[in-house]
Amino acid sequence: MAISVSNLGFVAILVLYCFSISSTEAYDALDPNGNITIKWDVMQWTPDGYVAVVTMYNFQQYRHIQAPGWTLGWTWAKKEVIWSMVGGQATEQGDCSRFKGNIPHCCKKDPTVVDLMPGTPYNQQIANCCKGGVLNSWVQDPANAASSFQISVGQAGTTNKTVRVPKNFTLRAPGPGYTCGPARIVKASKFSTADKRRVTQALMTWNVTCTYSQFLSQKTPTCCVSLSSFYNETIVPCPTCTCGCQNNITQPGSCVDGDSPYLASAITAPAKNNYAPLVQCTSHMCPIRVHWHVKLNYKEYWRVKVTITNFNYRMNYTQWNLVVQHPNLDNLTKIFSFNYKSLNPYGAINDTAMLWGVKYYNDFLSQAGPLGNVQSELLFRKDPSTFTFDKGWAFPRRIYFNGDNCVMPPPDSYPWLPNSSPRQTISILGLTTAFLLSLAFLLVHA
């Protein structure tokens, strides 16, 4: 069937459109309902505005916000100002020259707010504040999955008929990645007193929902996976240039050798960029590598060793977590030195698990160096109807580190059983070449 040039053009445009959608899509198949919800509760009216409590709830199962923490911004609908704040602060005051006497905390049309640090005086705190912007994930640490601050707003409406909700909410954590929808007025929040005998409610409430996209967060991957097994001496490394390529000639300082005399100064300078990754020079150039080793085979069980290595000289990962997708996780019998929780993103199918360190033991993944790794072993029971070491079945389908999808090696490179081969050893081109050489030999010697 012939295809016209115009049809080919249409197909090309359609393919490009599909790629553009997939690259920015914030939907996460392993956490389909995950989001950060910002709840803005107006608690009382003031002569020229209101006092509100703003709370961020991290409803993501395994993605958290680590140091240096979240940054929240928005644009006022009218000429509002922030008179004062508790539990947070605006990063800039802005131009308050029109005010005489009492000067507002912030006069910017588009304020940016950050959390206060631990150790803040008690008279400047409210519940769930002052964690340096760190927001833990819902499954791993639900008690610390919320962050709040109180804000006194002036030059705003003084009733729920005259107040205008802010616009253009932005959430950085600490970099890009989150996209926030519009603020929507919802049913007023209700609160119980400490003795549970009285219920109060907000005067007005609106919600903002923010979703995460790894593509928006960082154009290059942040982690990769390597593989090995007891039945094959081959160690499959992370793909070359997974997270960038080593190029200290055109980009000096893009990576550092572990024995470099300039290592200490490179880690600390410049001070303002200490959170920018500075990775050890490797073929993959990733800050994090996850190694999956099929260790032992028993009659009714098999055993895997998982090692997470930090190649980033500027980052200590606290409250790290790993999400693994593997068909045998429904028969996970024992896990050593890690916490475990089944996620079940597909309902009845139990093939996804979240792993994280034990508090005060190995929940801290040190920066690159001799101590920059954590490891555990997983013991699986064999299901005779599904278990096999053939065709890469023993290796994970997907691995996430701290909510980011890690790059897996290509399937044809996986370690294979000794009695099988992952690829054809003689190609068609090789056979053709051999035939032509043989034919030429016969003609010469005829």
Automatic annotation (TrEMBL):
COBRA C-terminal domain location: 222-415
Similarity remark: Belongs to the COBRA family.
Residue intervals passing through the bilayer: 426-444
Domain of life: Eukaryota
One GO biological process term: cellulose microfibril organization
UniProt KW keywords: Glycoprotein, Membrane, Signal, Transmembrane, Transmembrane helix
Protein name stated in the entry: COBRA-like protein
Single GO cellular component term: plasma membrane
UniProt-listed Pfam families: COB_C (PF25079), COBRA (PF04833)
